[in-house]
């Protein structure tokens, strides 16, 4: 498989002097195109910092981050916005939908940002929300809102989908359904999906598990036979 993402000797420090905090401490890993990757670790391990640097929301203090062969750690805001718009979809713990827009309109917003946005209606069908397209976020359950946000993330047809605790605010049954959908996007649409979580049960379904503690990588494990989400004993 093609290598899509490379972190090489990446360090992220916050603050200076006595208040200096090393959030990410000399981290190396690679992610291939089409992989379903879970970054695991307890609170404060540095997971979100890694994801934020990957999405260009934060820049490393030192080291190299390459996406699709492009060095992103030295990109300016405009270059980063372009790369993000073309390649990356985000799913957050809280769905970040615009309350005054319907599910359909929230997904259709992407058309304003990218030229080749996918059809909102088809995407909402794909995430099982055929009957809810014209509802506002307040009329949808948490799981439904998260599915709208997944449809929105997919609408720009990104190569990479990043999720920071994407099931964190959902009950376990809905969380499993959302995870199943992400695994499906990975297998059927060949998306590279990277999820940050503290839930160790996710490890069974991943192609690759990156374990972090105190800003460092403790283990990188390639799973030869990942389990379909539906078969995991949660
Ligand atoms: N903007 C910031 N300023 C100062 N310190 C920060 C900042 N962002 C993160 N940190 C620190 O960096 C460390 C790693 O934080 P990070 O959010 O990446 O951890 P995490 O593994 O995602 O944790 P959680 O599961 O609780 O979200 C923590 O000690 C945190 O306090």
UniProtKB/TrEMBL annotation:
<dbReference type="InterPro" id="IPR017911">
    <property type="entry name" value="MacB-like_ATP-bd"/>
</dbReference>
<protein>
    <submittedName>
        <fullName>Putative ABC transport system ATP-binding protein</fullName>
    </submittedName>
</protein>
<dbReference type="GO" id="GO:0016887">
    <property type="term" value="F:ATP hydrolysis activity"/>
</dbReference>
<dbReference type="GO" id="GO:0005524">
    <property type="term" value="F:ATP binding"/>
</dbReference>
<feature type="domain" description="ABC transporter">
    <location>
        <begin position="5"/>
        <end position="232"/>
    </location>
</feature>
<keyword id="KW-0067">ATP-binding</keyword>
<dbReference type="InterPro" id="IPR017871">
    <property type="entry name" value="ABC_transporter-like_CS"/>
</dbReference>
<keyword id="KW-0813">Transport</keyword>
<dbReference type="InterPro" id="IPR027417">
    <property type="entry name" value="P-loop_NTPase"/>
</dbReference>
<dbReference type="InterPro" id="IPR003593">
    <property type="entry name" value="AAA+_ATPase"/>
</dbReference>
<dbReference type="Pfam" id="PF00005">
    <property type="entry name" value="ABC_tran"/>
</dbReference>
<dbReference type="InterPro" id="IPR003439">
    <property type="entry name" value="ABC_transporter-like_ATP-bd"/>
</dbReference>
<dbReference type="GO" id="GO:0022857">
    <property type="term" value="F:transmembrane transporter activity"/>
</dbReference>
<dbReference type="GO" id="GO:0098796">
    <property type="term" value="C:membrane protein complex"/>
</dbReference>
<comment type="similarity">
    <text>Belongs to the ABC transporter superfamily.</text>
</comment>
<keyword id="KW-0547">Nucleotide-binding</keyword>
